[in-house]
Amino acid sequence: MAALPETYRALVLNAIGEPLEVQTKPTPQATPGSAVVKILAAKILSYGGDIYNGKRKYPLPTPLVPGSGAVGRVAAVGSDATSLAAGDLVLVDIYLRGRDDPSIAALSGVHEGHTETSSRLMRGEWRDSTYAEYAKMPLENCYKLDEKRLLGPTTAGGLGYTVEDLLAMLVQPVAFGGMRCIGIEPGDKVIVSPATGSFGSAAVQVALAMGASVIAMGRNMDALKKLQTICAEDRVQLVQITNDQQQEMEALAKCGPADAFFDISPPAAAGSSHIRSGMLSLKHSGRVCLMGSGIGDVAIPAAALTYKNLTIKGKWMYERADILKMIQMAEGGLLKLGSQAGWVTAGRYQLEQWEEAFASAAKHAGPGERVLFEFR
Ligand SMILES: NC(=O)c1ccc[n+]([C@@H]2O[C@H](COP(=O)([O-])OP(=O)(O)OC[C@H]3O[C@@H](n4cnc5c(N)ncnc54)[C@H](OP(=O)(O)O)[C@@H]3O)[C@@H](O)[C@H]2O)c1
């Protein structure tokens, strides 16, 4: 691996709501506890533009280099690295955790967390994220991948993926973390809502790979049908979100008794009937995972909760064990990625095209589509 260049190009957010700009900056150096990764591809969230223009009101220190999950190659490591080395292909996970208290967390380039102290994670050492040619990240946020297995040709025992396909492994852990926190097991029937967004459709794929069957809920029947086709599984049933609770519950009942309800609603779904319909449609001892923090307060059907012994859990992101297990599932061929799972790149952008890139990500958030920054 060539030595780090003196400077690198990065997308910079000077202040929330101001236009972003590409700047040339001194390349970060690897210090103990860190790796400097040459970014190859970085995912763009469907709501990324709304984070940086201020619509989402996510707390972030500025100036900073924004970012999201990425795939890259380690360029340099700190002197205490025990496993990672220059040249390794890695997943770059933006979920930062306090080393002295892993329950304190922030999302590099996206959100500085929910506690008074979580902001410390992003105001010093780990301020800059992955929308850049290089990113300095904590060693533990760089997950080494079996490059030969994932990218190698199928004729030589590989899975034949592209680097872009591997970006799926940065979306799927969110769903995997949620599914695992409510103990999803093979044979379970899980209601996923809304199932037509980026994280929602990944949740359907993850649940299927875990051996569950899925009732996918969404407003848009065409998008649901597309998802069903992509999944190519008869374990996916569809129920439309109509905002008529009785209608939704009748449709859910026709799909058979459900063990769990997984929700990852965006703020726009505040007040939608589907969360109540989903919870009320669970069988005895059903489990609920709520992951859509921006949706505001949700009315809890206390009577059903009590007489059916329901459990409700919230989840922000995933555990380290989740992402390691998910990589194992992907490398084992159990969890299909990218184009082999029906996903195509709907937009591929350079940093200078950030405006177009964020607009494209918002437009192409549906099942089977990804939008990314590419680096050559
Ligand atoms: N807890 C966590 O760790 C975690 C992690 C990542 C993301 N999230 C949250 O998850 C949310 C969803 O992420 P995403 O990437 O899937 O978003 P997305 O790609 O923008 O998709 C949004 C989804 O919400 C649906 N929707 C929009 N307005 C709705 C409404 N009024 N009623 C019902 N459904 C509605 C959309 O369906 P239509 O086709 O009907 O528009 C689509 O399925 C994000 O906004 C974020 O806040 C949480």
CATH fold naming of the largest domain: Quinone Oxidoreductase, Chain A, domain 1
- Going by CATH, the homologous superfamily of the largest domain would be Medium-chain alcohol dehydrogenases, catalytic domain
What percent of residues adopt helix (DSSP H or I)? 25-40%
Helix and strand composition category: alpha/beta
CA-atom Rg in angstroms: 20 Å
The N- and C-terminal alpha carbons lie at a distance of: 15 Å
CATH first level of the largest domain: which class?
A: Alpha Beta
Shape call: globular
What is the number of domains?
2
Number of strands: 17
Could you characterize the architecture of this molecule?
The structure is a single chain. The chain is of the alpha/beta class. It folds into two domains: 7-144 and 343-374, Medium-chain alcohol dehydrogenases, catalytic domain (Quinone Oxidoreductase, Chain A, domain 1); 170-314, NAD(P)-binding Rossmann-like Domain (Rossmann fold). It has helices spanning 48-52, 120-123, 147-151, 163-166, 172-181, 198-209, 221-231, 245-254, 274-280, 302-307, 320-331, 354-363, and strands spanning 7-12, 21-26, 34-43, 70-77, 89-92, 95-97, 105-107, 134-138, 142-144, 189-193, 213-218, 236-240, 258-263, 282-290, 311-314, 344-349, 369-374. The strands form four sheets. Strands 3, 4, 5, 8, 9, 16 and 17 form a seven-stranded mixed sheet that branches. Strands 12-11-10-13-14-15 form a six-stranded parallel sheet, with helices on both faces. A two-stranded antiparallel ribbon has the order 1-2. α12 links the parallel β16 (344-349) and β17 (369-374). The protein is globular and about 65 Å long. The site of NADP nicotinamide-adenine-dinucleotide phosphate has 27 residues, from α6.
